[in-house]
Amino acid sequence: MNYYVDMQHDDLNYEYLYGSTYPLMKNAGRAVADAVMKRYPDAKSVCAVVGTGNNGGDAIVAATILREKYDVKVLVVTEIRSELAKKALSEYGGQVLGMEAIDACMKCDIIIDGIFGVGISGDPKEPYRTAIERINGSGSHVVSVDIPSGLGSRYAVKPEMTVTFTMEKYGMNRENSGDIVVADIGIPPDVRKYAGPGDLLYYPRPDPSSHKGMNGTLAIVAGWEFYGSSVIAALAAERIGLDLIRIYVSERNYQIVSGYDPGLIVRPVSAIDDAVAAEIYGNSAMLVGPGMGRSAEAMDAARKIILESKIPMVVDADALNVVGEYQGSFQGKTVIITPHKGEFRRISGMEPTEENAVAFAKKKGLIVVLKGQVDVITDGKDVYYSKGGNPRMTMGGTGDLLAGLISSFLAKSIDPIRSCLMGTYLNKAIGDAAHAKHGYWYTITDMIGEIPAVMDKYIKI
What we know:
By secondary structure, the chain is an alpha/beta fold. The chain has two domains: 3-192, Rossmann fold (3-Layer(aba) Sandwich); 202-458, Ribokinase (UDP-N-acetylmuramoyl-L-alanine:D-glutamate ligase, 3-Layer(aba) Sandwich), CATH 3.40.1190. It has helices at residues 3-18, 22-39, 54-66, 83-92, 102-106, 128-136, 174-177, 190-193, 227-238, 251-258, 274-281, 296-308, 320-325, 341-348, 354-364, 398-411, 416-438, 444-449, 451-458; strands at residues 45-50, 71-76, 95-97, 110-114, 141-145, 161-165, 179-183, 217-221, 244-250, 265-269, 285-288, 313-315, 335-337, 367-370, 375-378, 383-386. Strand 9, helix 10 (251-258) and strand 10 form a beta-alpha-beta unit. Helix 2 (22-39) crosses helix 3 (54-66) and helix 3 packs parallel to helix 4 (83-92).
């Protein structure tokens, strides 16, 4: 479990849903201050030693509260870069020291360690190493914020107590973290129930030594009647960083589809025989349905690969009829369906409500992404949501684009529910980005063109 990504996820999604995360910093600082006052009621002086980021901001908030009871100093090891931490410092109003005054700080009864949070790698460098060594040799009561600075390296703070937030972090124990106090800082459940930019952080970084195929391959069986749908899904998938995208399209549309992008592998097929099916099943994931139409040959092809394949799949558009007619369960396979409300009504015989989406997902053993102004995502047990978008997203192609995004994340071996959260958020985010540039007049290709900028905002490779 990557607690650094989990915490970044929560912060980004909180900001997306509620605005500034400063209330969380205030709650975190209050939790640290309360723990200090409870444990050390007779102490006289406190020094908060802070680094550049939000962990330091938490410590500064604690210092601000503790000024009511103790003589308090804040020591900034180098400089504060976090805007939230700068805001906390502006509200502090007390004595601020630099490393040249570390001797005065080390004489305090209590030292609050707010140098590093989770996410650092390797041994701390100077002057942080000196700060950590001085804290450990101070003889003062030491309290770490969220996690002991440098934990897991050769130079780590050794506190009497660590006040950690939301959950105990990996690697923490009594020996390296002292007494561990887990504090609830008020992160609402919606932060993990609603898709947001934090979900994109789970995109897997490619190994520099990887070879072709290791970063995901996707088979798209689509466009047998309406070729544009297959192209939209494929171009969206191409922007997600897959190694190979193979489109299996009808012979009549082969020339059109193959002319769109030389990076796409296009296969003309009239039917899915065992040889073609074996090639499809050799991919990391597959997408079935966009633009296939409802001809007998199209439905036979969809039926064969949906029911036979064991690779993760997304089923959309006319291929959803196969899911609706199938009397069994897909339990044990990874199947995601992405119906809009009319399609859900058609394949399930039920009204497109959240309750019915849950029931259908449970009955069929699959994941339902019920598209709408607020998408509903459910595996029959848990329910998630994705809001956002704008009125222009009713245009044709946005569903094909979404199916391409979700299946691409699935091809990256990302958890299926997470793939749905990432895909639904990204689809709405690129719609909003295109709207910001072009107003109501943007097109589906404008949306596809916004994928790199939105991804790069959160994922640096």
